[in-house]
């Protein structure tokens, strides 16, 4: 927990410094040496601002982005599975994850809805058959007067 709070503080510090960089680049460059957990800014010959950050901070940022990407993927997958009305969500999720593990790397951009539909076709017992629950004349519109 402390590591996440430290990383969040470092990110906020970097954000504040970048906001300052937008307004006054020269003010940032009055640094004689690098501080341990703070970025260092340099100007190139074209007056473009570059940032040097500690490797630990970069590693923490990359890991945070990976975690965020994984969480985003899991939420999308859960939403798609729930849209297909599983009998047991945990079982359906396990089978879909198993199918994902067998996909070649080239197909990892596969549409999640298509993947879940394929699992539903292979394993219909994992999902509620809504069509079987509805009467056949459900599409008819009846006027009651």
What is shown here, in short?
The protein is mainly α and 145 residues long. Helix content is 58%, strand content 6%. A two-stranded antiparallel ribbon has the order 1-2.
- Please report the distance between the alpha carbons of the first and last residues: 64 Å
What is the helix content? 55-70%
Extract low-pLDDT stretches: none
Largest sheet: number of strands, sense, barrel closure: 2 strands, antiparallel
Number-wise, the strands total 2
Specify the structural class: mainly alpha
Order of helix and strand elements from N to C terminus: HHEEHHHH
Mean pLDDT: 79
Enumerate how many helices there are, as a single number.
6
Share in β-strands: 5-15%
Whole-number total of structural domains:
2
Outline type = elongated
Question: How large is the radius of gyration?
Answer: 26 Å
Q: Which strand order spans the largest sheet, edge to edge or round the barrel?
A: 1-2
Which tags fit this structure?
elongated; 2 domains; two-stranded antiparallel sheet; single chain; mainly alpha; 2 strands; 145 residues
Task: Please explain how this structure is put together.
- It is built from six helices and two strands, in the order ααββαααα.
- It has helices at 2-23, 25-28, 55-83, 89-102, 112-122, 130-133, and strands at residues 40-43, 49-52.
- A hairpin with a 5-residue loop joins strand 1 and strand 2.
- With 145 residues, the chain is mostly helical.
- 58% of the residues lie in helices and 6% in strands.
- The protein has two domains: 2-53, no CATH class; 59-133, no CATH class.
- Strands 1-2 form a two-stranded antiparallel ribbon.
């Amino acid at each position: 927990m402390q590591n996440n709070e430290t990383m969040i503080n470092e990110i906020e510090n970097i954000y504040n410094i970048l906001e300052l960089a937008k307004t006054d680049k020269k003010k940032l460059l009055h640094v004689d040496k690098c501080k341990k957990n703070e970025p260092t800014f340099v100007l190139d010959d074209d007056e473009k601002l570059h940032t040097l950050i500690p490797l630990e901070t970069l590693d923490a940022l990359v890991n945070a982005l990976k975690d965020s990407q994984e969480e985003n993927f899991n939420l999308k997958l859960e939403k798609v599975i729930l849209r297909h009305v599983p009998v047991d969500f945990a079982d359906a999720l396990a089978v879909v994850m198993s199918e994902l593990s067998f996909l070649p790397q080239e197909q990892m951009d596969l549409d999640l809805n298509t993947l879940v539909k394929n699992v539903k076709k292979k394993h219909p017992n994992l999902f509620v058959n809504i069509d079987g629950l509805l009467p056949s004349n459900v599409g008819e519109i009846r006027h009651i007067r």
